[in-house]
Design goal:
Helices cover 61% and strands 14% of the residues. It has 251 residues and is an alpha+beta fold. The chain has one domain: OmpA-like domain (60s Ribosomal Protein L30, Chain: A, 2-Layer Sandwich). A 5-stranded mixed sheet has the order 1-2-5-3-4. Strand 3, helix 4 and strand 4 form a beta-alpha-beta unit. Helix 1 runs antiparallel to helix 3. The longest helix is centred in the first third of the chain and has 100 residues.
Length: 251
Amino acid sequence: MRKFTVWVVPPVLALLSCGTSKKLEKAMADNAQLQSQVTALNQKVTTYEADITRLKEENLQYGKEAQECREVQAAIERNLQQMNDALAANSSTFRKIRDRAEADLEQLGNAGATVTYDQGLVRISMNDRLLFKSGSAVLSKDGIDALQVIANILNEYPKLKTYVVGNTDDVSVRSGFKDNWSLSTERANSIVRILRDKYQVDPSRLVSGGMGKYNPVADNSTPEGKALNRRTDFVLNPDFSRLWEVAQEQQ
């Protein structure tokens, strides 16, 4: 009996080929998708690495700026300490000047003078009876002697500057001067001339002026008040140059 062989391989192969093709296509699609994801991830990695590099650089810069800030803060604190030291030194010096002026005036028996220290300034006030005759800008002998107290202090402390300010009561001047303002100004001028000519005080450290009746310390309605207002003020100013230098260093 003759046998027939039926070849079914091609259809099977075709079926197998068809299934494999679909799987291959799916695999290729999956691979393409994965490749796209890898590319996207690589881009993110590149971005993150760039961000990390930038942040490191910024962190380094911030560290430098922080160090600079600490150095500036330290410099400011040093300068403030120097200013405080200078202020303390001025305060100590001016208290010594106040005590010395009080003692020297007391030795001269000048009851018409007062010495105060306030807000970093020494103020010496001398009654007009101690310095001048009524209505006059010519210094008396006692007045010239009293000025030696001022001169000695100024010559011992060569950086001090002094404002000499004449003051009067509100009674109109009778003769020789236009008004009390003129009288008070000329009295201050007479004083700085004596300090310069007799006691060799550097005139560049002297400032004179008059306030007339416009700077009272008491009520002009009473004789006692008028007497207190007729005075000459000596305002001793400290050396602010070191404080200025320190302030400039902070800028």
